[in-house]
Design goal:
This protein has 71 residues and is of the alpha/beta class. It contains three helices and three strands.
């Protein structure tokens, strides 16, 4: 099964996308803040990351660099 990590602070939009992917058998974990990313990427394997570039507490490119280092 494909595991997707979605990092987005707009939860309504993220939930819609999660539902659309779930009906296709894709499992999605939503993280809404940059501060939660470290814990999630350490504890949960994923195949794909969908990343909002403009987050309220950190720029998405900083998170992208963390994802590259950890995966």
């Amino acid at each position: 099964m494909i595991q997707v990590l979605m990092i987005d602070d707009e939860l309504k939009k993220a939930a819609i996308l999660k539902r659309n992917l779930a009906v296709r058998g894709i499992q999605v974990m939503i993280v809404s803040s940059a501060s939660d990313v470290n814990t999630v990427i350490q504890e949960n394997p994923f195949n794909v990351a969908l990343l909002d570039i403009r987050l309220s507490d950190l720029h998405g490119l900083g998170i992208f660099e963390k994802l590259k280092r950890n995966n």
